Amino acid sequence: MLIAIIIILLIIVYLFLIAPNTGRQEEMTLFSKVYIAHRGLFNNGDGEWVDDSLGGANNTDKKNTVDANKTISLEKTDTEAVIPENSLPAFIRAVEMGYGIELDTQTTADGRVVVFHDESLYRMCGVDKKLYECTYEELMKYRLAKTEYRIPLLSEALEVIDGKVPLIVEVKSEGNWQRTTRMTAEHLDAYKGKFCMESFHPLVLSWLKKNRPDVLRGQLSTNFFRSTLKRAWYENIILINLMLNFLSRPDFIAYNYRYKNQPSFFLCRKLFHVVTAAWTIRNEQALIKAKKVFDVIIFDSFIPD
Length: 305
Hints:
Order of helices and strands: HHEHEEHHHEHEHEHHEHEHE
Strand order of the largest sheet: 1-2-4-5-6-7-8-9
Radius of gyration: 20 Å
Strand content: 5-15%
Structural class: alpha/beta
Shape: globular
Number of helices: 12
């Protein structure tokens, strides 16, 4: 009997820890009505850096070569044009084709909010530096995927998106995550479009719960034992199993679709009926399967049928 009581109490505590907020499903409906273009509708082509050559990455021309009003019309069959991820033309193209947008925010050493995914500039700019160690002026020297396009400010991205499609903003935890979270939220305070915020870092969502309770917030997760990021085993277990949900009570869970049967995610979906987002779908076959499980679809590397 004692063992049974202990097991029941542990189950209750576990469910308390992972329970999300399920009171705002209706507010998330708009995000499930369109496919969400991961980092915009991009095609890096062969522009990602694979060696130590800096090539044209040190271009010191500070002019932003993207006109916010420029039309970047591309047919669904056009796979040749190089449009870098998290760039203004990638966002313009997604808007033109009616897709929602997911983008990533970080802050520079001098406190500017920019849109960029990686901690290092190497893959996209060919420079072996961490973004948060660079000033904005320094970032202006570099170009994305060997194109003329540079790393945009969040304010520039919001201007070209202009509330025309739903927006998912991922706050990256690299560098000073507290400053990035606060400054990203401040930028979005004046944004008139429909948006939500998400992060892998549970404390980002906890900050949002306390300081921006009206903003829809989502917990990102995956099987971190399969990740290249190095964490202690117990941290991986806690994050994989969403056991810090009690800190933020996220309004949705964005999970790597390959691990959709992970127990805690499964319970959040089936027991608590939380809104779920699949990342990142990269072909039509995976899309068909993911739509049977997830409410929101985040995609890249192909044009959904």
